[in-house]
Design a protein that fits this description.
Length: about 375
Amino acid sequence: MNNSFLLAFSTLVGTIVGAGIFGLPYVISKSGVVPGIFYFVLIGGAVMLLHLLFGEICLRTKEKHRLMGYASMYLGVWTQAFAAIATIVGSIGTLLVYIIFGGSFFVIAASPFVQISNELASFVFWVFLSLCVLGGIRLISRLEFIMSLAMLIISAVIFFFALPHFTPSHLSLFQGSNIFLPYGIVLFSLVGWAAIPEIAELFKKSKEKKRLDNLVVWTFAAVVTFYALFTFLVVGVSGPATSANALDGLKPFLGNSITILGSLFGLFALATSFLVVGNYLKNSLRYDFKLPFLAAAAIAVLVPFGLFLLGLRNVIAIMGVLGALLGAVEGAIIVFIYQQAKKKGDRVPEYKLRVPGLVLFALLGVLCLGALAEIFTPQ
């Protein structure tokens, strides 16, 4: 396995594993294990397919674009407008969630040394990562690899200390009143297609690009397995005390030391995702809207923090809406672009999917029905 594949794998894993993982235990504790497994399998498969479709779109197109540019190229101006709204609102909302969680985890990690406010902690977290976003995908991919390795080591330690406190009776099988609650959070936690165009650029050789589909499949197998283990372990330990950020509910059972270690894991997970999503938004504004570098970078990093200062901080509600509604819009646009790119693409892709039309129709149905369920499900 070469360097480019490892960097691409760590970049995609780092993009997907972000704030969403910390909302999963809370919503699964409210809905039950059976709905949780169902959502992991159904949505995991659906979102993996969307990543594969987006990868083929990138490989069928000579010019550098992001979702907005592909929508304009293959579907026209009106679809580009929808894609632009979904990309900008979705990316900014996602970065806002990272800033909120980043501050709370920074406070926990720094607590043995200094007491700081959530606002100041979020500011420090935001400043450091915003500067890294300016460095581009090469710098980001290397940081992703280091932080993903740190996440793996820290998560192994947390699992080791948490397992003796696991109580099977804390896991309820089914709670019908909250059956739709996990949908938006699970979808939000798995979306990482912002990294696909970046990875397509990271792969310089045709031989490397041929492995993009394998990269996506292996990434999703690893991420969904890790999510399920993490979620059920946290719920099994904290039970009814499971908190919205996962860590606060663990403190009475595992103590401050492990909770602080968990906050470090959280910071790395958020940082890896923030870097790629921020870079994706910056490049979308550059390549698709032709904005100057500094203007695009300023919008990408300043607007999310501005919303944070305005008081938008209900992370469960924000993640649910972003995952279901914006995920459905972007997912549907990817499906429609894919259908046109197969006919109008200007280069031969390194891999070609054979997806029946019925499967694509079912995929759209899952996204739309899930979005409707999210609208009518109280957070």
